Amino acid sequence: MMTTDLAPLWAEVDALTEAGELRRLSGAFARFIGSVGDAPAPLMLACVLLSELEGRGHSCLMLGELAADPCALMGWSEEQWQALAAAAGPLPKTARAWAQLLAGASQVWHAGEFSYDEPLVLDGDRLYLRRYWRDEMTVANTIGARAREVREVNGARVREWLDKLFASHREADKPDWQKLACAIAVRGSVAIITGGPGTGKTYTVARLLALLFATAPDAAGQRIALAAPTGKAAARLKQSIDKALNELAGKVGGDLALKDLTARMGAARTLHSLLGARPDTRAFAHHRGNPLDVDVLIVDEASMVHLEMMAALLDALPPGARLVLLGDKDQLASVEAGAVLGDLCHDAQAGGYDGATLAYARAASGETIPPAFLGGAGALAQQTVMLRHSRRFGGPIGQLALAVNAGDVGRAEAVLRGGAEGVRWIEHAQQAHVLQLAIDGYRPYLETIRGGDPKAVLQSFEAFRILCAVREGEWGVAGLNEAIEQKLEAARLIRRRGEWYVGRPVMVTRNDYGTKVFNGDIGLTLADPARPDSLRVYFLEGDEVRSVLATRLRHVETAYAMTVHKSQGSEFRHTVLVLPKSGGGMLARELVYTGITRASQEFTLVSPASAVLAEAIGRKTQRASGLRTMLER
To answer: Fewest CB atoms within 10 A around its CB: which of 91, 161, 404, 592?
Structure first.
C-alpha cells in the first residue's frame, strides 16, 4: 500500500502551533487519526481544522466553508493558509468534492450506514468527531419527539387559572407573552421560554408551576426540580421562583397551597449535581438506564448549556417528564462546543405559529397572537415563546443592549456618548482608568470586611465587577488581576502575604466534589473566626453562606476581573466591560451584549481603541452546527 508523505504538512502545523494559531491538541489529534490506516494529507488537514474548531465551540466542520474561505473560517492570513494548503497537496475545490474524498477514508463513517466504529462521522456536508455527532443526534431526536407530544389539557380551566395568576392590566393592543408562554408550555413535554434581561422569564415560569399545580390531576405528587449550569445561577433561580410564588400566594389566597409547592421543590442544583457527576469520568450517575426522579424539570440560563451536557440531560430525563428551558438566545453560547439554545430557538422572534396553536392559545389564555407571528415553522416553534417586553431595561442600558443586539453601531455609540445617567464610555483608555475604577468599585466590600459578617461582605462584593473580553495581556483577566492587586495594596486596602490573603476574591476553575465547589463559583477569602491564623473562602448560595478552608481549594484564580463568559448568570449593580486594543475573531456582538446585560444600574465601557467596539458589534458569532438541520430532518 502506498503511504502519503505527511512531513511537509506536519511541519506547517507545528509552525502554526508555535505561532499560537493552533492548539497542540489539534496537531496531536490529526496524527492519532493518521496512525489508523493510510491517511491522505487533505484528510489530515481536515482533522487539524476540525479539532481546532471544536476548541473554539463549533460542533463540526462545514465543508462548504472549508472549500469557500478557510482564512475567514480560521481567522488566519492568506499566507498562512496557502502554506498549509500547499503542504497538504491538491485540495478539493467544492463541498461535494471534499465529501467524496472523506467518504473514501477508512477513518470516516458515513451517516446512514448500518454500523460505525470510526472516530469521524460525515453527515451531508458536515464532518464531526463521533461523540459530537452522537450528541447532536440525541438532542435533535429527543427534543423533536418531545415537541410533537401535545398533551390534552382543559383549555377552560387553564384560562380560569391564568386570569387569576396574571394581572389584568397590560400594554394596549399587545399580547401578554408571559401568559401565552404559560398556556403553550402547559400542553407540551418540552417548552422553551426565551427573552432578554428583565423580560420576566423566572416570573413566568413561577406562574407556570402554579398553573401546573392547579390543573394537573396528580398535582400533589408532582416531583419538581430546578437546575442551572452554575451554582450562582441555580441559587438565583430558586430565589426568584420562591419570591414570585410567595407573592402569588397572597393573591390567590386559599385557592392554591403555593407554600406547599415551594417547600416541596427543594433547592435548585447545578446540572452536574442533578445528573450525579462523578470524579475522573465524563459519565453521570443518571442516564437512560437510571433516569432522574422528576416530573417537571426547569433549566435556567440554558444558553450556557453545552452540547454534551444537553445530550446527557435529555438522555437522563424520564419519558413522561416535562422539560422547560429558560434563557436568552442572544447571549454568548457555552464555553464548550455547541450553541444549543440558539439553535433550538433561532427564529423565535418570528414566531411561526400555525393555526392550531393560534386557536389553542386564544382559548387557553384569552390572548391573540398577532398575524405577523403566524406561519408553519415546525413542531418545536409551537412550543417556543419569546418574551418581548423588558421591565428592567427601559433606560439607557436597555437602549444600548438593543442597539448592540441589532448590530446598530451608530446607535450604540450615540447612547454611549450621549451622557445619559448610568452609561459611560472611556475611549482611548489607559490601564490606569481600569485601576481607578477598581479602587472605587472594590473599596466598599474591602471596608465591609471590618464588620466581620461574611454575608454582608459577599453581598457588597457582588455590587461591582470588571469583565474582560480576553484572558491574556494588559487588557485581559491575567494582566488586570495582577495590576489591580498591586493597586489595592498600594492603597492599603489589602495586605498580601503570599497567594492567600484576607479579601482575595477567587473563582473556582474546576469542579471539586470533595469540597462541593464547582467551576465558576465565586468566593471571598476571610479570616476564620475560630482560628484567626487560618483563612477560609466563603461562598454565597442564595441566602446561605458556606465556607471552605483556603488550603483545600486547589483550582482557583484571583477574580477582581473575570471573563464575560464566566459572568453569565450573574448581575452586578455596576459592570465595567474592558475591551482589548484589537478584537480578533473572539470579539463579537454576543460578547458585548452579554457584558452590557450584566449591569442592573450602571455600565461603563473601557476601550483603548474606539474602533474595536464597532468591529465587535459588526461581527455576529456563527458556530458550526448541524442541530437545526437534524431537527428539520
So the answer is: 91
Q: Is 158 helix (H, G, I), strand (E, B) or coil?
A: helix
* Straight-line distance from the first to the last Cα atom of the chain, in angstroms, rounded to the nearest whole number: 40
Phi, psi of 497 (to 5 degrees): -130, 70
Residue 280 DSSP SS3? coil
Find residue 527's DSSP bridge partners.
Answer: 535
- Closest by alpha carbon to 202, among 251, 247, 157, 168? 247
**Could you count the other beta carbons within 10 Å of the beta carbon of residue 115?**
5
Q: Tell which residue, 396, 397, 494, 398, has the closest CA to residue 438.
A: 494
DSSP code, position 111: T
Tens digits of residue pLDDT in 178-206: 999 999 999 999 999 998 877 888 889 88
How far is the C-alpha of 67 from the C-alpha of 54, rounded, in Å? 18
* Nine-digit cell string for 248: 402569588
* Local confidence band at 49 (pLDDT 50, 70, 90 cut-offs): very high
Check pLDDT > 90 for residue 575: yes
- Which single residue is written with the C-alpha cell 492519532? 32
Give the phi and the psi of residue 569 in degrees, each rounded to 5.
90, -5
* Residue type at position 114: F
Q: What share of the chain is helix, strand, coil (3-state, %, to 5)?
A: 45, 15, 35
Structure-block grid coordinates of residue 508: 473556582
The pLDDT mean for the chain works out to: 86
Q: What confidence score (pLDDT) does residue 229 get?
A: 86
Give the pLDDT mean for 613-628.
84
Instruction: Characterise 68 by phi-psi region: left (phi > 0), alpha (psi -120 to 50), beta (else).
Output: alpha
pLDDT in tens, 338-371: 788 888 988 888 888 999 999 999 999 988 899 9
Q: DSSP H helical segments within 491-601, as ranges?
A: 564-567, 589-596
Closest C-alpha among 608, 451, 470 to residue 527: 451
> Are the CB atoms for 284 and 276 separated by under 8 Å?
yes
Cβ density class 596-631: b for 16+ within 10 Å, e for less = bbbbbebbbbbbbeeebbebbbebebebbbbbbebb
Residue carrying the nine cell digits 455547541: 338
Confidence of residue 240 (pLDDT cuts 50, 70, 90): confident
Instruction: Work out the angle at residue 214's Cα, subtended by the Cα atoms of residues 211 and 218, and round it to the nearest 5 degrees.
Output: 115
- Name the pairing type of β-strands 531-541 and 572-578: unpaired
Report the alpha-carbon distance of residue 321 to residue 420 in Å, rounded: 48
DSSP string, 287-302: BTTB--S-SEEEE-SG
Give me the amino acid identity at 42.
Answer: P
**What's residue 402's pLDDT?**
87
- Least confidently predicted of 91-100, 172-181, 277-286, 481-490: 277-286
Task: Classify burial at 30, counting beta carbons within 10 Å of its beta carbon; exposed 0-12, middle 13-18, buried 19 or more.
Answer: buried
Closest by Cα among 37, 36, 55, 44 to 12:
44
251-284 pLDDT tens trace: 776 667 777 777 777 788 888 888 888 766 778 8
What is the length of the chain? 633
Gyration radius of the chain over CA positions: 26
User: By the 8 A CB rule, do 527 and 450 touch?
Assistant: no
Rounded to whole angstroms, the Cα distance separating 489 from 443 reads 11
One-letter amino acid at 195 equals G
**Pure H helices in 391-500:** 396-405, 409-417, 431-448, 454-461, 477-490
**Distance (Å, whole) CA 574 – CA 576:** 7
259 vs 573 pLDDT, higher one: 573
Is 335 in contact with 57 (CB distance < 8 Å)? yes
